[in-house]
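**User:** Once you have settled down, spend some time on the protein underneath, comparing sequence with structure tokens, and judge whether sequence predicts the tokens.
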Amino acid sequence: DEALYAEAPDFENSIQYIASEKKEIDFIITRNKRDYKRSKTPVLTATEFLEINIKNWLCLTISIEILLFYC
């Protein structure tokens, strides 16, 4: 019901916005960040998400390889 009255540009965005707050989602991934200007949940584009996670994945992979090499 809350999604019907949320201040989002359309119903689909309202559902995502309300769900992200209720379930404490870490972030929303979307092509149009402007639709989530009032979101308390951080909003990322797919490119931003991949850039962040590829860096984290590379660091983790390198750390594991170093540990395996020296152990």
Remarks:
- The chain is about 60% helix and 5% strand.
- The mean pLDDT is 79.
- The beta strands are 28-29, 43-44.
- Helices lie at 2-5, 11-22, 46-70.
